[in-house]
Amino acid sequence: MLGEDNEIRLETTTRMESPKNLVYEFTSPNAGEIVSAGDIIEYVLTITNIGESGADIRINGQIADVLPEGLIIIPGTLSYRVNDGEDTLAMAGFNRMSVPGGVQLEQHDTVEVRIMAEVMEEAEEGEISKSARITEIVHHDEIITNSVSHIISTENEIEGPGDELFTISGIAWLDENGDGLMGENDTRIANIPVRIRKGGAFVTDSEGRELEAITDNQGRFEFTGLEPGSYIVVFGVDTSIYRLTSGNVSRAISVPEGGRIIFRADVTIVDANATNVHIGLVENEVFDLALNKYISRVTIRNEDGETHLDRDNVTGNFVRMDIRARAIQGTAAVINYRIVVTNEGEVAGNVKSIIDYMPPTLIFSSELNPNWHRNTDGNLIYTGMADERILPGESRTANLVLTTTVTTALQGYSIVNAAAIHEYENDNGIANAKGNDRSEATVQFAVATGGVAMYVSIVIACMVILSAGIYFINKKVLVTGRGDA
Fold this sequence. Notes:
By secondary structure, this protein is mainly beta. Helices cover 7% and strands 46% of the residues. 29% of the residues are buried.
């Protein structure tokens, strides 16, 4: 059973004077049902602001969740949606979740928060319950929602008629026209590995090897000799190439597991074969957000005054600043960076955050850099374009200003500063193309001795030539005079 801390906590602020303006509900699609190891439980918290005074509620993103014993959060399954908007994935760790940036719930808005948990193999048999608690509502005590219960069963098998064994089979197909329906002319997909899981572990043969089927040229797979019970069919799909079709013919769903997205189908065999465990796929478009970092201007201030050097997106990857030797100590330098994100793919998306790996020789000021902040690792995070949809061919720019004090220790030293796309999203859940989402720019401070040395060398050379000429002229005069004598 739940202890007193076993709830979702929503940190909120509000201008409402009465909680009567709130309608809230806590549900689960399979509430009251029997679940066992490996089964998935989804929880849904719905909050609606029915106030007539324009009152707002804000979910600030501190959602602490302690699940009943025997459940574990599936990372990457926390999502929220305001009204009919898009689902936004939030971050989830071990029984702790956060919604970056917060969610604003205005008058007549509804927010729906979803989280998925898996029944652990060591879960004990019995009933588990869960509720949600909304705290810190101004002028009112906290609100505790209804409880949702499930029954954990440690019995993995469902009794069938006698010793009869059954089959799980299906087809992998390519939904080329995007209609969500498996037609006779749709291409079947071969060479997709398929495995089945039961009771929290993959099913093995008599020698302990995991059972695996590979789809044939007709996209078909089959597992035979299966006892009655609940199974999870796991398809080994390359998610960099395919995603699930939007149709309802396919029984597969997308589930985060082990830091990646897997496709799976839940199947229960009682007294008949399961022959329609199909998976419909579509090919991913290319999602490619490229990042390039440039130096737009370097300004130095010292006893010689102030000078600056401007660069564009062609010449801004490397900048060298020459400083007079006697003025280099204590020179103040301001470096303006320009970070450009360009959608070079076929799918629109958002850059939720950019990370800048600021070296220790540079100094960051939040006053000079709106929408930037420093994280616990000392790196800089930019969120200024999180809500901007970047269409194919479009670009967005972020500016960053860092400072440093030049000393003789930095003479000839190159300051290399790199940035990369940190978080991103798109409607299709496609991974960003690799190789062009990180860039660096370099500035070098050097002593301006080259010009002086060249000038001195020219003067000395001229003096040597002049002296040699005088010498030979005098020598010739002397020799000539002696000959006449």
